[in-house]
Specification:
By secondary structure, the chain is an alpha/beta fold. It has two domains: 199 residues, 2-enoyl-CoA Hydratase, Chain A, domain 1 (Alpha-Beta Complex), CATH 3.90.226; 44 residues, no CATH class. The protein has eleven helices and nine strands. The strands form two sheets. It has a six-stranded mixed sheet, sandwiched between helices. It has a three-stranded parallel sheet with strand order 4-6-8. The N and C termini lie far apart (41 Å). InterPro entries: ClpP/crotonase-like_dom_sf, Enoyl-CoA_hydra/iso, Enoyl-CoA_hydra_C.
Length: 261
């Protein structure tokens, strides 16, 4: 059996590929576990500055959870289904959302269910003009369980989010961009190029973990508490070489060098 996750590291960018193209990159338990392991591996690798996450093949980013596998857990009762399926999926999206290096989803096709929830959780997303999104869990008689009931309304607004969650209809990348689910749309054959270009625009600067942490935590707090997080993240950077270099470069009217903390 092929590995469900492919990992390639080049020029400071980690490319993670969901690799079950014959199953439309459905998120079975092994794939989720290996994705988490890949994130563990690259988080501590100083050479990796940004991450691109995409799907194998031409048809799907991910069509969602592996329903056949999930249904076996459901047959064993709520406790097993919550433990094996819900907690695993929520841990995955929480890990993506809180990851300290920027993660860019390159959505190359269907992003249904859990595939859409991954897109909601990552920091940035580019979709091909062939991408298609949906929240079809309602058709199975259930809500999204990988964070979709929480993140999508925060992105789209309560009413627009509820319409997508309750109707379950597919929506095109143009609507995904309108509601803030993705950043841009590009032709299919330019998707990875565009993702690498965006990653390059990010990695030319000093590490951005403080910014990601402040935004991710602050969105779920009252603004006064979020401002404290912002202050904490800045304070942690005050003694850093990157801040010293950035200030020196500004004074000397030259581009700043990325020197590391």
């Amino acid at each position: 059996m092929p590995e469900p996750i492919l990992l390639e590291i080049k020029d400071g960018i980690a490319l993670i590929t969901l690799n079950r193209p014959e199953q439309l990159n459905a998120l079975n338990y092994a794939l989720i576990d290996q994705l988490m392991a890949a994130l563990d591996r690259i988080e501590g690798d100083a050479a990796v500055r940004a991450v691109i996450l995409t799907g194998a093949g031409e048809r799907a980013f991910s069509a969602g959870a592996d329903i056949k596998e999930f249904s076996h857990s459901v047959k064993q009762g709520a406790a097993v289904a919550v433990r094996d399926f819900v907690r695993r999926g929520q841990a995955m999206t929480a890990r993506l959302e809180a990851f300290k290096k920027p993660i860019i989803a390159a959505v190359n096709g269907l992003a249904f269910g859990g595939g859409c929830e991954i897109t909601e959780a990552v920091h940035l997303a580019i979709a091909s003009d062939r991408a298609l999104f949906a929240k079809p869990e309602i058709k199975l008689g259930m809500p999204p369980t990988f964070g979709g009931t929480q993140r999508l309304p925060r992105l789209a607004g309560r009413k627009r989010g509820l319409e997508l969650l309750l109707a379950g209809d597919p929506f095109p990348p143009e609507h995904a961009r309108e509601i803030g689910l993705i950043n841009q749309i590009v032709p299919q054959d330019q998707l990875l190029t565009a993702a690498h270009e965006l990653a390059g625009r990010i990695t030319r600067h000093s590490p951005v973990a403080g910014t990601i942490t402040a935004v991710t935590r602050g969105l779920n707090m009252p603004i006064a508490e979020g401002l404290l997080v912002e202050s904490e993240q800045f304070a942690a950077l005050v003694p850093s070489r990157d801040l010293a270099e950035g200030l020196a470069a500004w004074k000397e009217r030259r581009p700043a060098k990325c020197v590391g903390a």
